[in-house]
Prior knowledge:
homodimer; mainly beta; Sulfite Oxidase, Chain A, domain 2; Immunoglobulin-like; 2 domains; six-stranded mixed sheet; 7% helix; molybdopterin cofactor binding (chains A, B); metal-binding (chains A, B); heme binding (chains A, B); OxRdtase_Mopterin-bd_dom (chains A, B); oxidoreductase (chains A, B)
Amino acid sequence: MGRRLADVSAPARLAAPGEGIGRDELALAARNHGLPLEAMRHDLTPPGLHYVLTHYDIPHVPDGTPWQLTLGGRVRRPLRLDPAALRDFPQVTTRVTMECAGNGRALLTPRPVSQPWLVEAVGTAEWTGAPLRLLLAEAGVAPDAVDVVFTGADHGVERGVEQDYRRALPLRVAAGGDPEVLVAYAMNGGPLPPQHGHPLRLVVPGWYGMAHVKWLREITVAAEPFTGFQQAVAYRLRSRPGDEGEPVTRIVPRALLVPPGFPDFMTRRRVLRPGPVELEGRAWSGQAPVVRVEVSTDAGRTWREAEAAADDGHRWAWRRWRHRWTARPGEHVLSARATDAAGHRQPLEQPWNRGGFANNLVQRVPVLCLDDDENGHEGDGHDENGHEGDGHEGNGGAGDGVGRA
Amino acid sequence: MGRRLADVSAPARLAAPGEGIGRDELALAARNHGLPLEAMRHDLTPPGLHYVLTHYDIPHVPDGTPWQLTLGGRVRRPLRLDPAALRDFPQVTTRVTMECAGNGRALLTPRPVSQPWLVEAVGTAEWTGAPLRLLLAEAGVAPDAVDVVFTGADHGVERGVEQDYRRALPLRVAAGGDPEVLVAYAMNGGPLPPQHGHPLRLVVPGWYGMAHVKWLREITVAAEPFTGFQQAVAYRLRSRPGDEGEPVTRIVPRALLVPPGFPDFMTRRRVLRPGPVELEGRAWSGQAPVVRVEVSTDAGRTWREAEAAADDGHRWAWRRWRHRWTARPGEHVLSARATDAAGHRQPLEQPWNRGGFANNLVQRVPVLCLDDDENGHEGDGHDENGHEGDGHEGNGGAGDGVGRA
Lengths: 405, 405
């Protein structure tokens, strides 16, 4: 019997009711990773904490490896550019909040079987590169062009189809200035890390992560709409398997809380002590600026306006928000809800599609506020040195940014 | 009814037969992360790809936050040191392969319910700091001292016990020179990233990750053996719940392959084409240098000697190995097996304990070698530009380190 590519792939499917996360989903979760939500305290996500999703292996491109980006297809003057040549174009730096299109998938019912994100597939970085519109202008786009196709060096199989990762943007987006698409060669002022596309990647501010093609080696201007796997099969909003579906494009609004208090290791439940707590978090939308964040501390029954940080000029990055709350003993469910200037508002019921894409259901953070007199702190009897408190009196714990000195 | 810490914790347990990964395990997998195995090609793990496990939240310590490390307890001259003062001690840099004690846990039968690592919880970095033995000498350890206790700023609950993360080393290890324990303030030449212990952490070469206390703020020399949670309850090798158990200490030998070929996105199955393949990987042991690596390409029935790289003087870091193989069409299971100079050799049957610790079962990498004529590559019809091949002819694919220019 022949050995075929189809033998390694499985059809897309939904998990059965109550079905736990499978070995395949776990293997994805072990290599890709989300942003630990407490790290949303940083305006710019520290190296290594930004979410990462790679469909296949991370290409191995040691420093000094020659690399050329070609720009061809329906253009008058095909270009071949190495990373140094890209620096001859005007250099643009943009702060971008990037989110995986599948963020929230593992919380859906039924659960589409794929990378099992909870809500952490997000991160913010400053990307520096050459504006794609200037590269396209230099090459001279033919009048019949409709799509611009981007090919990465990452190679694998999906649903029986062997492929280099490849996605397209409509020409009007690729050549447009709002957002200004970048061919990026730096992240937070340094070279791209291997997992973020070293040496070159596309950055499409406001769009979900699948558009930001990593390890970029080829740009092709096409006179026909692109129908490759990642465009026509994957990353579509479908309610039934046979539907053509709508393409996944820009990020819909989402707000997330930095979970307050401290966690239980295994259950991940959050614990607080009674008293004032400053709730905080971030909110973003790729469609229009976030204009409003509301907070609920009673499982969504009532909502109050949070205080959003002043506009800092970073149109494509998340916005900080805060809300003062007084925690009383008992169980509480905390939520935040973003609305953008175009009137898009996060839903309270799950937006469901077969891929689990663009799902911005409001986050729920259950917390337990202890009784005033509860003190379960480890009495370990070795502390002859008299250290100055274990941070369990307040609600900031180790996460409050206050040094122990 | 009172709200107690015990309400947020659950007892330690084993998964039922066939039980999928639960929401709690997934939440751990989404925030902690392993090393994508293809990144073992790098001698030093690139930033952000080194494995990370944090029990609780990552403490938020913005640059410029005052930080003091105290060294007290059974000493003649208690010390208070800020990170700058540590640089007045001799500066030592050590290349260390670090592995989580729970690596491999999710592959065990039955599966202990905790952070569900497959085999990726490893990474190699160069850590720079002050030798702990010199700090202890400066403080003057009392003659009755037996343990040295290390306290981090990370705070949470485990099994109903609220605690700062705290672990001890026997005095002879803490004050010894083999390995030389470091209070580290730099990783790969730069400041520690937040998730790796910024601003200070312990580094104990050759020991599993639980010993390398992050966000280190207190060192206490004690005259009694330390009986805190992470020493006496967690990180013990137990076959039954009530056992006292043996402490988890040094890393047992393990070899891992860089999985050859390319993956299917969802199943993670590896695909190859017929022909020569250079298998490669890394091997390490915290007990003694790795002296032998064997490779099997027939599911462990036969073994051949791999070619191990020459000793590079980095005693505490992994060793590279290679093995030439000719892939023929069909299904194969690849394995590698390490033996160290003390005669420890990886087992072919799972070493099982209730915590899933120090489990170095030989890795199994199933691969499918296609028939010669199989070509399922996406024909996407847009490639007027004539790019130079999609890397699907060989077995290196995008991971072979060869540029596309």
